[in-house]
Amino acid sequence: MRARLAGLAGRNRLLAAAAAGIGATLAMPPLGATPFLAAGLVALAWLLDGTVRFRSAFLAAFAFAFGFFAAGLYWVAGSFFVVGGATAVAGPAAVLGLAALLAFFLALPAALAHRLTQPGLGRALALAAALGLGDWLRGHLLTGFPWNLFGYAWLHVPAVEQAAAVIGIYGVGLATLAVCLLLSVADRRAWTAAALTVAVMFAYGEVRLGRAPQAEAADGPLLRLVQPNIPQSEKWRREEAAAHLQRLVRLGAADPEPDAVIWPETAVVKLLHSRSPVVEALGRSVRSRRGLISGAPWREDGRYYNSILAIDREGRVQGRHDKAHLVPFGEYVPLRGLLGAAKLTVGGKDFAAGPGLSTLTLPGLPPFGALICFEAIFPGEAVAADARPEWLLNLTNDAWFGETAGPRQHFEIARMRAIENGLPVVRVANTGITGAVDGYGRRLGSLGLGMSGSLDIRLPPPLAETPYGRLDDLPFLAGLVLLAGLSASRRRRRREAS
Q1: How many domains does the chain have?
Q2: Considering just the CA atoms, what is the radius of gyration of the chain in Å?
Q3: Which of 165-179, 272-286, 361-375 shows the lowest mean pLDDT across its residues?
């Protein structure tokens, strides 16, 4: 098989690389078929071994990454179909354009690694470092979009995913890349190193989980998570606004009385401000001991924000988080004057970006870190450095994407923030998936896609700050240096031997 793949050229090589990338997406949530990632990366390594020029290596790596992202992000087109009309035509083009942009982040470092190494163990190590660096770069540059990072291939294996508490998801991804690419080398030492790497991660996770208390033993505040399941096509209709609020209130009014009721992102569609009488009415409308936490659009100093509001029982805003990581073309239009494009969402004006991470309080509840929609996908950007919360709250509206893989992936990605930081994550979505996990990422309960209802959760206590919480991406960067150094050492030995 290695010889056959290495012997492919031209269009056949690109088609094989794209097929390997598409197959590798089966390792991502919700399927979690990790061996397919290994097979795809091994195929990529063998295809690259058959190339000589930088351009050929770049195109092969680009085809692999393009297939990986196009197949893994197909659900993005759903938001264009929700808008409908002429906009729907742009959906597939948007997916392909996004896939091409993200593919560049992987293809360029992979081609450079190929250019600097020879086939064998040194190239496998260099390629792992290059793809790991590409994963990290796409999470940070051009606003960042760290979706379906390679480390998420382990999200169905509770023991292995615990390694993120030490090395973060980028570190788990780097280790995963090293394991998979070492399998492409016909060297017993490489296979032994791959097996030992997985064994160490698995053993660490088993010990960590073995020392954890029972997930069901939490006796903290009672939170009621409300999932109204309002279709996106109906959500912003003014004539339906009152009925939607009544549905939210009714779904949260069951016995026993919770400590707080939590509604999803933009559950309130009316634009609110500091003197809005609606704010007081919201606080008094819900049946809870402490108050309401809800998403709503907010106006302040002539700017518009996508916000989370913590409102007490008297209708006073006790805390507000304004979304900082805005979705391009969803909440604002980049280079609006140049592109002349319009937002997909309602309203002609752009949302303004908030100041950054927030730790909010609602009297009587532990302080929480607020994350709106895809703010939860950014590793290392979930916890305010100056005020560590006791839990994380992610409000979202994934109704744009229907019952596709997108909302399922979003929930799993948010769950990883719990493992990295040792903090419970509570997630409330308009159409699903609503749920909560403890600081080990263990599920405490959930409401599936397309369901309407409420979910009561006893908030578990936070864990001690994790190594990743203290070190951020330093372990990942150290891993990059280690792999690059080992690869350079192999290259030097080859030169000396020749």
Answers
A1: 2
A2: 24
A3: 272-286
